[in-house]
Design a protein that fits this description.
It holds the Pfam family EII-GUT. The chain is mostly helical and 235 residues long. Helices cover 76% and strands 0% of the residues. It has ten helices and no strands. It has helices spanning 2-13, 23-51, 53-71, 73-83, 87-90, 93-102, 119-128, 145-158, 163-195, 199-234. α7 packs antiparallel against α9 (163-195). The N and C termini lie far apart (96 Å).
Length: 235
């Protein structure tokens, strides 16, 4: 009995015997083995996502929706409009809020709060932040989480205690980079507008933007006045 078990163990340790010496048969065997191996690896990756990052994404999305509901869309909109006033907040706080709250690609729609000449720079800042943001907010760009997973895989394998530091540096460097890109792209946009003789065209865009902003503010003031009057009438 012992000899049979030894024979089985010895056979299991031996490399598999080729099915045939024919190279065509060997190629077909290799293809069949790796064909099913591809789907096995895909299944293992899917199980890893379902038990790993997917619950985190669902919880983060639920938390962000609850936070927006609690704060209110009007307050969030006013915060974005406030951050659009100065360059240092326009290319740091504004894209950060846009990417975390609206996620990729809806984050770019916050550009509607900016004049035409500043929209390219805001887009450049926002699109440059969709990868660093995944270090702490993977829900913001879940479709490209593999970038951060690839960056952090080595650190997780050999120095997992350094993982929070790497995430912090990745996130912080992203903020510095989007600020620089926003400033440079805005400067390039102004240069191109001037060189192509479109200064008057964009000045007209700015006047249209100012008039549209005034109409929105007047509409909100009218709604607040009517709401206050109706509340006093009810009392």
């Amino acid at each position: 009995m012992q000899s049979v078990l030894d024979a089985i163990i010895w056979a299991a340790d031996e490399p598999p015997v080729p099915a045939s010496d024919n190279p065509i048969i060997q190629a077909l065997t290799w293809g069949a083995t790796n064909f099913i191996g591809l789907f096995n690896a895909s299944g293992e990756a899917l199980v890893g996502l379902v038990t790993g990052i997917l619950p985190t994404l669902i919880v983060l999305l639920t938390f962000m929706y609850a936070l927006i509901t609690w704060i209110g869309e009007d307050r969030m909109t006013r915060a974005v409009q406030w951050s659009a006033r100065w360059a240092i907040t326009r290319y740091t706080i504004m894209p950060i809020i846009a990417v975390i709250v609206l996620t990729n690609p809806m984050a770019y729609s916050f550009g509607v709060f900016l004049p035409e000449r500043q929209k390219p720079a805001f887009y450049d800042s926002a699109v440059s932040f969709v990868h660093p943001v995944t270090a702490f907010f993977p829900h913001a760009n879940a479709g490209e989480i593999f970038v951060w997973a690839g960056v952090s895989a080595g650190v997780l394998a050999y120095a997992p205690e350094k993982y929070p530091l790497l995430a912090l540096l990745y996130f912080g460097t992203g903020i510095i980079v989007i600020f620089i890109r926003g400033i440079v792209t805005e400067w390039i946009t102004k240069l191109l507008i001037r060189r192509q003789g479109l200064t008057e065209v964009f000045d007209e865009y700015d006047r249209d933007f100012a008039r549209a902003t005034e109409r929105v503010m007047a509409s909100k003031a009218g709604k607040q006045t009517r709401s206050s009057a109706s509340s006093e009438g009810a009392v």
